[in-house]
Amino acid sequence: MNDFPSDETLRQVLRRAWTSFAAGNHGIGAVVVDSDMTVVGSGRNQIFDTRGGSLTLSGSPLAHAEINALYSLGGVRAPGCTLVTSLAPCPLCVGAAAVFRISDIRYLGHDPSCDGAAAGTASGSWRLPRITHEADSSWSLWCEVLPMVSSVQRHGRDSILLRSYELSRPDLLEAVHRFADMCPLDSKGVRGISFEEARAAFWSTFSDTPATLPRV
Ligand SMILES: [Zn+2]
């Protein structure tokens, strides 16, 4: 992308930033472009707008331009795409871009409160929260496995989440598949098994079953 951003990309980002500003929001716009520099998603800051709209977030502190550009993709991740935004992205938007497998973020204006997030560090007025793993909780294994089971149900054995565990926790995989068989998923969700039954079955799939099942 030697000539990046293209005139058309720039025009769309700036136009959305203006629309945001004109509507009384922070004047920030963003687009998602694919490897051919075709705009595949767009959004603007709408934090002060009235709530509503099916493909935008509005009336919420979460309604950032970059979030709306990603949200406009309609639930489709965008590997290899680039997020172009008019102002340095905050930690929320950097994280959201990672969820959408965005490979690059380009921003036009500096924002002293967010440049740190853009650089992958905590600086300015944004402070990334301290994150602590509650390793001693008996429920941490349950909390770790439950999304893995859900991932198996929806994506089969080739899910990205599961693959990420293949090297680090191969001991979990067999139990995950057995547990997935116990909790069939249909269009209305997981049915036919109560929480109490599920947790009892869950612990029975592990050899290190606690003497007393953790209570909640
Ligand atoms: Zn943001």
From TrEMBL:
Which residues belong to any copy of the CMP/dCMP-type deaminase domain?
4-126
Write out the transmembrane intervals.
Answer: none
Entries under CDD domains matching the protein: nucleoside_deaminase
InterPro entries assigned to the protein according to its UniProt record, in alphabetical order: CMP_dCMP_dom (IPR002125), Cytidine_deaminase-like (IPR016193)
Under SUPFAM superfamilies, the record lists: Cytidine deaminase-like (SSF53927)
Organism's domain of life? Answer: Bacteria
Please name the PANTHER family in this protein's record: CYTOSINE DEAMINASE FAMILY MEMBER, TRNA(ADENINE(34)) DEAMINASE, CHLOROPLASTIC
Protein name, per record: Nucleoside deaminase
Q: Which organism is it from?
A: Streptomyces albipurpureus
